[in-house]
Amino acid sequence: MIKQKIIGMISGYSNLANRGDWLWQQTPHHFGIWENIQILPLAEKPDFLLLYQFDFPQPAPEKFWLDRLCGKQKTSEFNFESLSRGVPKTRIIYLLREPPLNEVVEINKQNYQKAQNYCGYISGPDDFAPHPDYMPAIWYHTNSFRELNEMPPPEKLSPCSWITSGISRTANHRQRLEFMRSLQNSDIKIDLYGRGLPEWSRNLGLLGNKWYGMAPYYYNLAIENYADNDWYVSEKLWDSLLAWCLPIYYGGPAADKLLPPGSFLRLPSLDEKGIAYIQEVTATPDLWYAAKDAIAEARQIILHKLNLLNWLSEFVNQYS
């Protein structure tokens, strides 16, 4: 009988702070077990510790000149030992998953630099990471692993959907919003869902489960926030394929290296040319029918190979 190694987790994502069942839906077994590992994010004494998009404290701002003159300036110490739960450095994994957007690239670099003091393995989807690599797959459907693994294509009823957000804090986000405006000014039938979308957008609201905004559609727009290196690809593509959509994908070349040919379409650009492409593709479901076998193959790759749980299992095997 295999005795699973316990994987703990801490993250900078606030919604994961107290999640005891994180990733449990990505395995066919109960309680987060995948082959030789069990992911228990809050375990007190795990065998390995995953720092998942964990942001190390940034340097404190400069004190007033009078405080410095009087020797009152103090440097706050970061106590990582209280977070590490006794896990040795060689068994601490740092995975950064956010893209290196111009607005945050220096913060990403500082995180990598600080992680080297505490972590034995450090990776992220950018060239300046200690170990540049693709992000292992997570997805946001609440369906069970067995259901996703065994299901046939669901009934398709509508041409195309897009699930996105109204975030506008970076130039890339603002470019996406402008494309949304242009797309809605066209006559293309696309159902738009998401959080914080602009008042001018004709959207169908926030979804509690992305499945309902993808599974009934032949096509789905999967538009990354970043498309400028060879590493970055996100759950936007995995969610689309797992719902048996044919993604119309805008992103970098990473997806071509991870998925079989024909399992997604390439949106050429976020402009009039891209809109014309979407209009041509979504006019009929023909391309979806032609891609069904490739979509099926891609889904199995996502579920079994690219899955973050499988990545952690293989990491533990290499360590052992």
Keywords:
320 residues; alpha/beta; Rossmann fold; seven-stranded mixed beta sheet; five-stranded parallel beta sheet; globular; transferase
Strand order of the largest sheet: 2-3-1-4-5-6-7
Number of domains: 2
Instruction: Tell me, rounded to a whole number, the average pLDDT.
Output: 94
Name the CATH superfamily classification of the largest domain.
Glycosyl transferase family 10, C-terminal domain
Could you characterize the architecture of this molecule?
GO terms for molecular function: alpha-(1->3)-fucosyltransferase activity. InterPro entries: Glyco_tran_10_C, Glyco_trans_10, GT10-like_C_sf. With 320 residues, the protein is of the alpha/beta class. It has two domains: 5-133, no CATH class; 145-305, Rossmann fold (3-Layer(aba) Sandwich). The chain contains ten helices and twelve strands. The protein has helices at 65-69, 81-84, 105-115, 145-150, 171-185, 235-242, 254-258, 272-282, 286-306, 308-319, and strands spanning 5-11, 33-34, 37-39, 48-52, 92-95, 121-124, 131-132, 158-165, 191-195, 217-223, 246-250, 265-266. The strands form two sheets. Strands 2-3-1-4-5-6-7 form a seven-stranded mixed β-sheet, covered by helices on one side. A five-stranded parallel β-sheet has the order 9-8-10-11-12. The protein is globular. It starts with a strand and ends with a helix. The model has no long low-confidence stretch (mean pLDDT 94).
